[in-house]
């Protein structure tokens, strides 16, 4: 038997608050994740721990109350928080964009510089050959 609406909604909101608190205490902030190395193993581990812990809490509250509202709100919040943390972990701090593969500094910065190899940069005519 589901809870009465005047009780069900506060229980669902409290469940959502617990999910948010679990993610806030288990994972780094989104800003910190975005500035860390892309596809960080520690971030992925803490994100998975938060997701499983929050899922267990939501399932437990939903089973105890026998009401679908905490499950719906808590589940939606888990999906949203998990997506936000996954997206932040995919952002490369060098480009500020989320990309599917691991981009390193050597992919952005050329191996040679203009001074070492001016012909590769269109300055071959301007270089005096000694």
Q: Main traits of this protein?
A:
single chain; mainly alpha; rod-shaped
Task: Give a written overview of the molecule.
Helix content is 62%, strand content 0%. The longest helix is centred in the middle third of the chain and has 25 residues, at 41-65. Helix 1 (5-26) packs antiparallel against helix 3 (41-65) and helix 3 (41-65) packs antiparallel against helix 4. The chain is rod-shaped, with a radius of gyration of 24 Å. It has helices spanning 5-26, 30-35, 41-65, 68-90, 105-108. The termini are far apart. It has one domain (5-108). It contains five helices and no strands. The protein is mostly helical and 130 residues long.
Can you tell me the residue ranges where pLDDT is under 50 for at least 5 consecutive residues? Answer: none
- Total strand segments: 0
Task: Give the CA-CA distance, first to last residue.
Answer: 91 Å
Principal-axes geometry comes out as rod-shaped
Provide mean pLDDT, rounded: 85
Write down the oligomeric state: single chain
Largest sheet: none
The number of helical segments is 5
Supply the number of structural domains. 1
H/E topology pattern: HHHHH
The helix fraction, in percent, is 55-70%
Helix and strand content put the structural class at mainly alpha
Beta content: under 5%
């Amino acid at each position: 038997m589901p809870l009465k609406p005047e009780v069900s909604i506060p229980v669902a909101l409290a469940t959502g608050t617990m999910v948010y608190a679990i993610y806030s205490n288990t994972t780094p902030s989104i800003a910190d994740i975005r500035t860390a190395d892309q596809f960080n193993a520690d971030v992925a581990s803490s994100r998975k721990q938060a997701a499983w812990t929050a899922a267990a809490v939501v399932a437990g509250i939903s089973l105890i109350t026998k009401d679908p509202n905490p499950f719906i709100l808590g589940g939606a919040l888990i999906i949203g928080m998990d997506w936000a943390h996954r997206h932040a972990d995919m952002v490369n701090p060098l480009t500020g964009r989320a990309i599917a593969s691991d981009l390193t500094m050597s992919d952005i910065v050329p191996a040679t510089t203009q001074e070492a190899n001016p012909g590769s940069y269109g300055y071959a005519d301007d270089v005096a050959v000694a």
